[in-house]
Design a protein that fits this description.
Length: about 230
Amino acid sequence: VTLDIQPDSQALAVQAADFIAAQVRAKPTLSILVATGNTPMPTYAELGRRAARGDIDFSRVTAVQLDEYLGLSDHDPRSLWGWMERSFVTPLGIRQSIRLADPAAFEADIAALGGIDLAILGLGPNGHLGFNEPPSPPTAPTRVLALTPASLESNRAYWGELSVPTHAITAGMNVILSARAVLLLVNGAHKRDILRRTLEGPETPDVPSSLLRRVPLTVIADEAAWT
Ligand code: F6R
């Protein structure tokens, strides 16, 4: 595990953008599993600025969706596909993305791609990854699930007056743990306890993020999350 502490969330974004850009330079056809949520947004914005300046070319990268709510229309503002498109795919100039709609088709699409090269993840307050809520064993597959109270609570922050959908689909722990590299982004004092448990507690399905210690993991956190 590489743990990189940055003074604040903007410095975190620059460091994370450097990490991702280096991977894309090394392999222009990189396949990236893409989290939404608040944490990676400054990183995606930084990458978008670099792409707009012509500093980096994402046109051969494939973006793979990490999770999605069920039962929304394509134009629903809560669609996580829409969020990934607006924040990542479009500003970076990515031409190919894989949508998460059917578990079997999704895992077949990833196999056809040759697997996931890089997973960019945020850290749930209870260690969830995507919608893999505790307990999620390493073999937990891509699946449809009912949102737990913890998922409903942590997702409420995104949608203001709109309700949080009740069902979702998530890339499985199997997909996440088969990534050739994982970049976990963590900011804010509210993530301090779970970051400690992720890196120093027991490796257990009860803290799905602790299972990331089995894969090549880079954590970039701000000081508030690691003091
Ligand atoms: C988002 C996702 C979630 C978030 C996690 C942290 O696609 O899968 O697991 O990464 O809930 O959310 P933030 O970054 O908003 O604190």
